[in-house]
UniProtKB/TrEMBL annotation:
Source species taxonomy: Bacteria, Pseudomonadati, Bacteroidota, Cytophagia, Cytophagales
Record protein name field: Geranylgeranyl reductase family
GO MF term list: FAD binding; oxidoreductase activity, acting on the CH-CH group of donors, NAD or NADP as acceptor
Ranges that cross the membrane: none
Domain FAD-binding residues, every copy: 11-324
Top-level taxon: Bacteria
């Protein structure tokens, strides 16, 4: 991290936001030998409201950066990162299934999930950024943007001074409330493709599985949503719920009230919280789903992570997808620099690559929207659980995810076009 009081007057690439998407873009650019400036308005470590689940995209990306030791570091820091060896899913009628991953005997055991507070995981990534190619500045706030013939001029408040940096390519990784999205007039919330969520950290929640299974509870109070309990290190847990924003608005759902009811006035859940202690007030946030596509590229810019609306619409997972977007975007940024061509056409392959990776989830979510959730949602879920379909699907998927993470290359299908 640079300790200079002044920012460079020019950088080929400016990354705004050092969360998982921006940090991974920076790590990948450094891996490719590309100079860049990365800024974030916060000072790390800092809290970030999230479900705190990390999937196998993370070790896959570390492997592609030739940094497999970072995966080992995750596994060997139990006070920050907790291995979760599977999933507990609970149907609306209360039927529960535990899906525990058993790795093949001839492979190294790696859990299908790891949990960590975003405060810790994001700090972990930021601390890896240092390289001769990366200039990281925190507590640096983007205040204004202007188009130029060569790209952009960015006014950045840093060290109590408003400083101007010119760049050829802008990589927006500053989240759902992105300053850059607002400048581009792209931040328009469609409640059908947006989720509302609340979270609170607890300590001493009863009934957690000894193998730290992450829990998804599909409740009648939450159509097109779920209640979760994710174990965390040191006896803590991330507890929360999420629901499609349109349904929340139509039914006037108060998420905090629903969470309170589940935790303290529900026979099957409340006993688990009788001795638990809340470690913070309930916090809320919005989730931009990938089912509503944004224009992720344009002349001299790319959108990453939540700024690009890339959250899996079926399960709300966004960290791994954000990191994947950063990894892929960095390769298209390298292409633009090498060709000295920053047009939307040059960068378009990045959007195509990301859309391809999320197309199955988006299709399934959009198909679900065609049905009346008031009539079909809960009966269908109960039927699926009765037929053991989620259990069989999860067991098969966990093995596929493991194979993908450690055996398959991240293909950039449109990079050479």
């Amino acid at each position: 991290m640079s300790q200079k009081n002044t920012l460079p007057s020019f950088t080929p690439i400016l990354i705004v936001g050092a969360g998982p998407a921006g940090a991974t873009a920076s790590l990948t650019l450094s891996h490719l030998g590309m100079e860049h400036l990365i800024i974030d308005k916060a000072t790390f470590p800092r809290d970030k409201i999230c479900g705190d689940g990390l999937d196998l995209k993370i070790p896959r990306i570390f492997k592609h950066l030739n940094r497999p030791e970072w995966t080992e570091e995750l596994l060997n820091t139990p006070d920050i990162f907790l291995p979760a060896w599977g999933v507990r899913m609970v149907a609306p009628n209360g039927r529960a299934t535990d899906n525990i991953y058993t790795p093949p005997a001839d492979t190294k055991a790696y859990p299908p999930f790891v949990t960590a507070k975003r405060q810790d995981f994001d700090n972990f990534l930021v601390n890896k950024i240092a390289s001769p190619y990366a200039d990281l500045r925190t507590d640096a706030s983007l205040e204004a943007l202007r188009r130029t013939p060569q790209g952009w001029e960015a006014d950045i408040l840093y060290q109590n001074q408003l400083q101007t940096v010119a760049c050829q390519l802008l990589m927006a990784a500053d989240g759902d409330h992105s300053t850059i999205l607002r400048h581009l007039q792209q931040r328009k919330i469609d409640r059908v493709h947006y989720a509302s969520s609340v979270r609170v950290y607890y300590k001493n929640v009863a009934g957690l599985h000894p193998q730290n299974l992450i829990e998804f509870h599909f409740r009648k109070e939450l159509p097109m949503g779920y209640f979760w309990i994710f174990p965390l290190p040191n006896g803590c847990a991330n507890v929360g719920l999420g629901i499609q924003s349109r349904i929340a608005a139509e039914r006037d759902v108060n998420l905090r009230a629903v969470l309170d009811k589940l935790l303290y006035h529900t026979p099957d859940i409340s006993p688990r919280f009788e001795q638990a202690q809340a470690l913070e007030p309930v916090k809320g946030w919005g989730i931009p789903l990938a089912s509503r596509r944004r224009n992720c590229v344009g002349d001299n810019y790319m959108l990453l992570g939540d700024a690009a609306s890339l959250v899996n619409p079926l399960n709300g997972e966004g960290i791994g997808t954000a990191m994947l977007s950063g990894y892929i975007a960095a390769h298209y940024a390298q292409k633009a620099i090498q060709r000295n061509n920053f047009t939307a056409q040059t960068l378009a392959g990045y959007e195509q690559d990301m859309s391809l990776r999320l197309q199955d989830e988006v299709k399934a979510y959009n198909m679900a929207l065609r049905f009346d959730h008031k009539r079909w949602y809960f009966p269908t879920l109960n039927t699926l659980f009765a037929l053991n379909i989620p259990n069989r699907w999860m067991k098969k998927s966990m093995h596929q995810w493991h194979n993908t993470a450690f055996e398959q290359e991240i293909k950039l299908r449109f990079l050479n076009q």
